Amino acid sequence: MSIASVLAATWMEPEAAAIARGLRRRDARLLDSLIEKYQHRLLRYLVYLTGNREFAEDLFQETWVRVLERGAQYNGKSRFETWLFAIARHLVIDGSRRKSAQSLDALTDSHSHSDDRAPLQFSSADPSPFDFVQQRQQGMHMDDALQALEVAQREVIVLRFHEDMALDEIAAITGAPLSTVKSRLYRGLQALRPVVESQKALAVTAAAAAGGRT
Fold first, then answer.
1. 38-97 pLDDT tens trace
2. Based on the domain organization, do 9 and 98 belong to the same domain?
3. In terms of residue numbers, what domain contains 113?
4. Does 8 lie in the same domain as 92?
5. Cα–Cα distance between 28 and 110 in angstroms, integer?
6. What mean pLDDT is predicted for residues 110-123?
7. Is 124 in the same domain as 193?
8. Burial group, residue 161, by CB count within 10 angstroms (0-12, 13-18, 19+)
C-alpha cells in the first residue's frame, strides 16, 4: 500500500501532520509506506556518509527501529524526511564512536570557525563545480569525487543536490548554523573542481588516443 493511500484516510490533513498522527498511533501500514517511500534515499545518504555499505545497511535498519520507538516525538512541524535524516545522522555518529572505524569529528563540530569565514558565493559567469560533476561524470566517477571530500562537506552536498533539501533543512539535520552549512557547501563544491577537471583531462586524452588509432 502506498503512502498516498494510507494518508487518504486522514481527511485533508497536511502530509506531515498525518504522518505525525500515524506515528503516534504506531500505525504499521504507515510505517511500511514510509519505508517504501524513503528506503532508497535513506540508504544512499547513509552510504555516502559512512563510506561503508555494510555499516550503512545496519544503520538503515536501526534508523527505522528508532522511528518506530520515537515516533511520538515527531510533531509534523517539519518535513518527515528532515526528522528521519537527523535520526540517521545521530546513529552514524554514535555507531562510528562505538566502532572507532572512522572519525566524524567534522560532523559534530557544528560551529567550525574556519567554515564561517569562507566566502559563500560563486561567480555567476561560471558553472559550479557540481555542474561539472553532473555534466561530465557518471556512476563511479561521481562516487569517487564525493568520497574524496571531507565527510561534513560531502554530507551537505548529498543533502542539497541528491535529496533536494533546502539549506535551512540541512541546518536542522546537522545541527549546524546556516552560515556553516553554506560554507561547507561552498568548500565542498570548490574541492570537487580539481577532481573533476583531472578526470575530464584523462577522458580527453583517452578520446584523443582512440581517435589516433582509427
1. 999 999 999 999 888 999 999 999 999 999 999 999 999 999 999 999 999 999 998 877
2. yes
3. 108-212
4. yes
5. 35
6. 44
7. yes
8. middle
What is the residue-averaged pLDDT of the chain?
Answer: 78
Domain boundary among 66, 86, 102: 102
Q: Select from 72, 48, 75 the least CA-distant residue to 60.
A: 48
Tens of pLDDT, residue by residue over 126-135, are 445 555 454 4
- One domain for residues 81 and 145: no
Last residue of a domain, one of 102, 120, 143: 102
Q: Looking at the predicted structure, is the pLDDT value of residue 111 above 50?
A: no
Residue 2: what pLDDT? 59
What is the pTM (predicted TM-score) of this model? 0.71
Return the residue matching grid coordinates 497536511.
14
126 & 72 share domain: no
- CA-to-CA distance for 188 and 117, rounded, in angstroms? 14
Element (H, E) at 45: helix 28-50
- Per-residue model confidence (pLDDT) at position 126: 47
pLDDT at 20 over 70: yes
**Whether 20 and 36 share a structural domain:** yes
Nearest to 129 by CA among 70, 47, 190: 190
Co-location of 72 and 86 in the same domain: yes
Q: How far apart are CA 57 and CA 73, in angstroms?
A: 24
d(CA 90, CA 97): 11
DSSP string covering 97-152: HHHT-S--HHHH-TT-HHHHTS-----TTS--HHHHHHHH--THHHHHHHHTS-HH
